[in-house]
Amino acid sequence: MKKTFRIKKNTEFQAVFRKGASVANRQFVVYILEKKDQGHFRIGLSVSKKIGNAVTRNRIKRYIRQFFQENQTRVSPMKDYVIIARKPAAEMDYHSIKKSLEHVLLLGKSIRKESNDNK
């Protein structure tokens, strides 16, 4: 995923926390902030040390980035997303994380449902 799709600065994270809406499930909390002047979405990731060691945290972040990479066309553009992983995410494989992220983004009305055109 290109760096233009990432939120890195603390001030940008704080803006999303303060002004954005949040949705959550057991594995993730997602803050969503509408940005009209932006041509694409951006994501910021937060995975606490409480979740596990560096290997575990990096794996979770990799899985989240992969989900957004695969679903670029489905995710609402012109929004900033901050994803906070919770403890149960440490034991999940990619498919479980994908399903959980899809669920929480559907709750936040930030992803289109997958169409089954290939039947």
What does this structure look like?
With 119 residues, this protein is of the alpha+beta class. The chain has one domain (3-107): 2-Layer Sandwich (Ribosomal Protein S5, domain 2), CATH 3.30.230.10. The protein has helices at 10-19, 54-70, 94-107; strands spanning 21-24, 28-34, 42-46, 79-85. A 4-stranded mixed beta sheet has the order 1-2-4-3, with helices on both faces. Helix 2 (54-70) packs across helix 3 (94-107). The termini are far apart. 22% of the residues are buried.
- Structural domains: how many: 1
Number of separate helices: 3
Mean pLDDT: 90
Gross morphology: globular
Brief characterization of the structure:
With 119 residues, the protein is an alpha+beta fold. The chain is built from three helices and four strands; from the N terminus they run αβββαβα.
Name its key features.
119 residues; alpha+beta; Ribosomal Protein S5, domain 2; 4-stranded mixed sheet; 3 helices; 34% helix
